Amino acid sequence: MDKEIAMIFHNHGLRSYIEVDLCRECPREDDKGCCGHYSPVFYPCDFAYLLENQPDLLRYILSQPGLTVLDYSITVNNTPEGDSYRCQFHSKTGGCRLEQLQRESICRHFVCPGIHWETEENLKPWKDFFAKLTDYENNLNLIIAQKLAQNSLTLRDKDNRQPFFQQLLKLFKEATEIKPDFFAAVPIYEEVKFKRALRFKADWPL
Ligand code: SF4
Ligand code: SF4
Q1: 68 beta partners
Q2: With contact defined as beta carbons under 8 Å apart, do 99 and 107 qualify?
Q3: Nearest Cα residue to atom 4 of ligand 2
Q4: For the segment 66-90, what is each residue's pLDDT rounded down to a tens digit?
């Protein structure tokens, strides 16, 4: 069965995201779709956004059970449920409890291979944009992590998280003062529609 799918691309620089209307009636038919198989990982660029815009949410994340805290990242581990898992931020009735801008990058960019939007010729500028954005963000995270390491600052040191985050935000602002050219290569907002053949439950590829 072919279905028309609407996607909306949002260019917010480092906080860009993709919306898909099909997620509201995900063909996996298990009330969680791809969010049943993922544990969000927050990196320095995410921390910088939360520190500036949602410090209470950062405190909430740090208080959650089942965290994997490494030197420069925090994974909010999913919990077992049935034959898969459920992300701790996922609600059965309303989907993700985080606003788009609050989510980490995979959660803002990921669209399942069943939709495979990258094959649409008219979406090549967005494909290039998100590829460059991923490289840009990974590089920023690495640079910030290396500089924090030079100052012996790590998330594992619970007693020194305040200086860790203060320094992280300073480094982030310095590193992002000049915006990369590719930020202007796509519009702020674009809605597109195309058709895909649907399959259901485990036949819908994640
Ligand atoms: S599996 Fe695809 S359709 Fe389902 S929630 Fe994830 S991105 Fe949306
Ligand atoms: S944070 Fe939200 S979008 Fe990401 S896996 Fe969890 S429920 Fe899904």
Answers
A1: 75
A2: no
A3: 107
A4: 999 999 999 999 999 988 899 999 9
Which atom in ligand 1 lies closest to the alpha carbon of residue 28? Answer: 4
Tokens found for residue 77? 């581990």
**Tens digit of pLDDT for each residue in 12-45?**
999 999 999 999 999 999 999 999 999 999 999 9
Q: Is 28 in the pocket of ligand 1 (CB under 6 A)?
A: yes
- Domain ranges in the chain? 2-203
Q: Is 35 in the pocket of ligand 2 (CB under 6 A)?
A: yes
Distance (angstroms) between ligand 2 centre and the Cα of 196 equals 24
Task: Identify the pLDDT of residue 120.
Answer: 98
Tokens representing 140 are 């920023």
pTM of the model: 0.97
Return the SS3 of 43: coil
Ligand nearest to the CA of 96: 2
